């Protein structure tokens, strides 16, 4: 069975600083996807970034980037130049490629960006 | 774009009544939709996978007779909570995957808050 672990229940960062959220996962599959979703107070789930396991290059989306370490089964999210609007719950998620498309979520990290 | 809507955004009902929640993909067709449940300060728990024109697949521990799912078209899935009880109070979220998309990305609706009195 696949599991996703987020070991940081809460994080805090000053505006304009950089923060890294941790995520590890466990799977015996070789082809899969990893995601970071953001859930602000509105509770709308928003896709932040996506990584295919077969790609060695780390995904980036503007201020958001990942450090994907396949051998270590680690998928951390780095947020640069943090903004107040980044305050949200962040969920790491895993999906097996070509299967049921089910997402397995971690327990989430609540990020607070301080002014 | 990939916009998913849910209706209603919130609902309050009496114990024993049934409530229907709609999930619509507004600007794309979705072969597969998912229904999640989220308790306060917790993660999303997958309830069922809904495929257009076929029966839904429920996760272990989810009562299919209590949570009825219908996926009648490529843009609409509904979740009906039958004979609702206070313990069914929760935040229900749907998501959808685009037909013939190159990615397996799920697009989420804004959620529906259900309160059962």
Rg of chain B, Å, rounded: 13 Å
The overall pLDDT average of chain B reads 92
Overall form of chain B: globular
Strand content of chain A: over 45%
The topology string of helices and strands of chain A comes to EEEEEEEEEEEE
* Class by SSE composition of chain B: mainly beta
Uncertain regions of chain B: pLDDT < 50 for 5+ in a row? none
Uncertain spans of chain A, ≥5 residues at pLDDT below 50? Answer: none
Sheet of most strands of chain A = 6 strands, mixed
Order of helices and strands of chain B: EEEEEEEEEEE
Overall pLDDT of chain A? 94
Q: What is the alpha-carbon Rg of chain A in Å?
A: 14 Å
Class by helix and strand content of chain A? mainly beta
Cα-to-Cα separation, first versus last residue of chain B: 37 Å
How many strands, which pairing sense, and closed or not: the largest β-sheet of chain B?
A: 7 strands, mixed
**Number of helical segments with 4 or more residues of chain B:** 0
How many beta-strand runs of chain B? Answer: 11
Overall spatial form of chain A:
globular
Structure description:
The complex is a heterodimer of chains A (115) and B (117). With 115 residues, chain A is mainly β. Chain A has strands spanning 3-5, 10-14, 19-21, 24-26, 32-39, 46-52, 60-61, 64-69, 74-79, 88-96, 104-105, 109-114. The relative contact order of chain A is 0.34. Chain B is mostly beta strands. In chain B, strands 2, 4, 5, 6, 9, 10 and 11 form a seven-stranded mixed β-sheet that branches. In chain B, strands 1-3-8-7 form a four-stranded antiparallel β-sheet, with no helix packed on it. In chain B, strand 4 and strand 5 (44-51) form a beta hairpin. Chain A binds chain B through residues 33, 35, 37, 42-47, 50, 91, 95, 97, 100-103, 105-108, and chain B through 32, 34, 38, 42-44, 46, 49, 57, 91, 93, 95, 97, 103-108, 110-111.
């Amino acid at each position: 069975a696949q599991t996703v672990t987020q070991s940081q229940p809460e994080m805090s960062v000053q505006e304009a600083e950089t923060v890294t959220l941790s995520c590890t996962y466990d799977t015996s599959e070789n082809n899969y996807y990893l995601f970071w979703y953001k859930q602000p107070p509105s509770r709308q789930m928003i896709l932040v970034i996506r990584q295919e396991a077969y790609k060695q290059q780390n995904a980036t989306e503007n201020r958001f980037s990942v450090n994907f370490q396949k051998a270590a089964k680690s998928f951390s999210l780095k947020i640069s130049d943090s903004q107040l609007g980044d305050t949200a719950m962040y969920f790491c998620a895993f999906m097996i490629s070509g299967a049921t498309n089910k997402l397995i979520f971690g327990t989430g990290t609540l990020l607070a960006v301080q002014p | 774009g990939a916009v998913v809507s849910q209706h209603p955004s919130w609902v309050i009902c009496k114990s024993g009544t049934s409530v229907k929640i709609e999930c619509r993909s507004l600007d794309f067709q979705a072969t597969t939709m998912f229904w999640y449940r989220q308790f306060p300060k917790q993660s999303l728990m997958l309830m069922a996978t809904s495929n257009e024109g076929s029966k839904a697949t429920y996760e272990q521990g989810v009562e299919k007779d209590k949570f009825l799912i219908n996926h009648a078209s490529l843009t609409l899935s509904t979740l009906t909570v039958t004979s609702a009880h206070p313990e069914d109070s929760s935040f229900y979220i749907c998501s959808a995957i685009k037909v013939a998309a190159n990615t397996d990305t799920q697009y989420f609706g804004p959620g529906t808050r259900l309160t059962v009195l």
